[in-house]
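PROTOCOL LOG
Step 1. Enter all chains and additional molecules of the complex.
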Amino acid sequence: MDGIQKELLEQVAGLHEIPRGAYNIRANGKGIARSTTANIDIIPKEDKPGIDIRIKANTKNEAVHIPVLLTESGINDAVYNDFFIGENADVTIIAGCGIHNGGDAKSQHDGVHRFFVGKNAKVRYVEKHYGSGDGKGGRIMNPTTIVNVDEGGYVEMELAQIKGIDSTDRNTESTLQKGATLIVKEKLMTHGTQYAKTNFLVNLDGEDSSANVVSRSVAKEQSKQLFISKIVGNNKCAGHTECDAIIMDDASVSAVPELTANCVDASLIHEAAIGKIAGEQLMKLMTLGLTESEAESKIVEGFLK
Amino acid sequence: MDGIQKELLEQVAGLHEIPRGAYNIRANGKGIARSTTANIDIIPKEDKPGIDIRIKANTKNEAVHIPVLLTESGINDAVYNDFFIGENADVTIIAGCGIHNGGDAKSQHDGVHRFFVGKNAKVRYVEKHYGSGDGKGGRIMNPTTIVNVDEGGYVEMELAQIKGIDSTDRNTESTLQKGATLIVKEKLMTHGTQYAKTNFLVNLDGEDSSANVVSRSVAKEQSKQLFISKIVGNNKCAGHTECDAIIMDDASVSAVPELTANCVDASLIHEAAIGKIAGEQLMKLMTLGLTESEAESKIVEGFLK
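Step 2. Run joint prediction.
Step 3. Record the structure below.
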């Protein structure tokens, strides 16, 4: 790996070196390093680009890193990864993607991730998207995530796109069986003329299933954001979705949550708020000696933490 | 007017007799009574069914009643009413519609109301929809309401459809200029296999314009409801939309609010909650001697009050 790849790896996966445990590192459309453990197998797909990640039942406290790095300009990388998580497993999956585009051609990564989470399994999924490089070529990421959670399963997703992605169309679709839980925390920041669309669909099919989808975003300069979140209650269930956005400069933000209750025992709530940074907050920090732009940065940082 | 028409008139307009002041009563597709005052003129349209209601500037504390009654089965009545409200006027407009269908043919009323609210004028608009009759013919109402509020204008809308309408597709679109205010309070109840769709669009175009759109609904038995509410902030403005629904039996409810901020000084909020009547509330009333169904009625009544 060269310096740029190492920098991207740190940004998207918090890694300074090759990780311990299971991993698969993909760079510029090709797998460049792979490691499996006794409990976690990684098998390249034969019919299309991508891997199957098979985690044995009862696997505890293990992690899988599957970062994707794009450093060549003009690359168009699509990848299909399937995760099979055995019953009672308790694992962390870290799946960031970084694009460095120093050229004038568009670089694009479309990742389709499907999760099959076994009974009573617990998964923490972390996905960071990051872009860098001063080329004129666009940095584009369109992730699709399909999550099936079996009885009693628990999935927590931390999704972040803080910097450098020019256009993103994010789709996450999940179906929860009896007693299953989904927690989503999304953080988005756009600047320049960036565009970000994010679309969640949660089907609460099982009795006592529950979902909490929370998105926080900041839109700066001329950027545009569209947030869609649908929760469908088909059984006795609880769903909550929330979208809070800070709007700055000439940006625009739309929030379109959708609740559908098809069962009398479905309890669904959503909230959203879009507004600029409160004047009093800015004033307070400026009284403490910060410039206006330092104060803004501080508030945005706290909001997205 | 016969007994059924008098009963409808009481339900939709709270009237026991012909009202004082300005009014236009329409029954089965024809105007049957009209009265104007020195400040409020009512002129039948020449190119299509409907009336122009012209309210002079500075008119204070006057009311206009324009109820519509359908008592023949199989009638299909479309009407176009335009309201021109002069500067600084302060008036109440009561525009209910009642359908009594005792036959097997469909009875339908499509009313298109356009409001041109002058500078600093204040309008209270009350619209009640009600259906009765034990015929198999459907009772259908599709109201379209377009509201233009000039600088400093204030419009408060109370929209209610509590009983007897089999299908409704309600569209309300409003545009607010500088300092204008819109308050909407909607109450809906559906039962049987009824369907209700309600769609609000509020364009906050003017500086310091504001809107508050609140809908409360109860869906019983096999009925279905869809609530859509879009607030678009194009200037320094404040918008709030809220939808609270009680779901009962096998009903289903969808809520789809949409906030779009196109200006950094737009402050927009929405909230929604769908759920059944809380068990504790029922228990409390039953401890006081009410049956379960009496307790439910009491809670629904309080919720829609």
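Step 4. Note key features.
Helices of chain B lie at 3-13, 279-287, 292-304.
Chain B has one domain: 3-279.
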